[in-house]
Amino acid sequence: MPARYTLGIDIGGTTTSLAVVDAQNHVAREKRFPTNPEAGFEGVLRRIIEAAAPALERYPCAAIGVAVAAHVDLRTGILVTSPNLGFENVPLGAILQEEFSVPAVVENDVNAAAFGEYLATPMAREPLCAVFVGTGVGGGLIVDGDIFHGADGFAAEIGHVPVVAQAGERCGCGQRGCVEAYAGGPAIVRRASARCRGKATFDDVDAVVRAAEAGDRGSADVLEEAAAYLGVALAAAVNLLNPGTLVIGGGVARAWPALSERALERMKRSALPASLAHLAIRGALLGERAGVIGAAALARKSPASGPPGSRRTP
Q1: CATH assignment at residue 245
Q2: Are residues 240 and 213 in the same domain?
Q3: Distances in Å between the alpha carbon of 182 and those of 105, 226, 236?
Q4: Could you tell me if residue 269 is inside a domain?
Q5: For 54-97, what is each residue's pLDDT tens digit?
Q6: Is-contact 192 258, C-beta < 8 A?
Q7: Do residues 187 and 200 share a domain?
Q8: pTM of the predicted model, to two decimals?
């Protein structure tokens, strides 16, 4: 008999979430805590193990699915690189499998969240493209009910669509002018603080939004620029991929609900009319749970695949 539960772990640049998920994608138990990547990989791993151990003791799980803000080697479960976490070449899948004696499946966080959103609406018109605006800007593409990874696992990297050609803002990937360097949460905070010229600094996007609503022109401009550049990137994705469904979510979109509206307005002005004609657009339905639900579902889908930490495409 298939095990009833799998454990989903979502390691983001700001927050880490764990959830025990059943076969119907219902959450039985969950926990969230700051990722604190400045503590290094060992520090982050220790907190994950401490949080996962009691959950696995109470709810025996057949497998662990991990969504992480990183480029993942899907064959080995190794985190190759992660600009927003600062981790490189760490065998997360193998470590968790050895620690808990169950298979561990590791996937990019946005791909896992996109899969979670796909499961929330299984009758969605495909391909489904999900874009999440949070610490970074990420995209995931679902084709024929599975994640489309591309040749080397970099498909749908919408956050690194270049939107400024000359002297653009530096992105965490090392390039300049990427949409993430304008619409990602830390980028919005940094750019709004710079516009204030020492008069104020901001701790998070919520603070920037409050300042804009209170009449601060610099903060308002930074938010509008974020939406405009995101709209340009969305238009590029729609023209290139011709998705049937477009999902927009993430922490920045929740903090500033107008982001989606403004970005979509810009997208519709720039994208091909034929690509927009039958496009279904919706907000994310699972909110902060998309990554853990998607990761847990991926683990359930292939709980005994190959080498430690690997996953097999069905």
Answers
A1: 3.30.420.40
A2: yes
A3: 32, 5, 16
A4: yes
A5: 999 999 999 999 999 889 998 888 999 887 788 999 999 999 99
A6: no
A7: yes
A8: 0.90
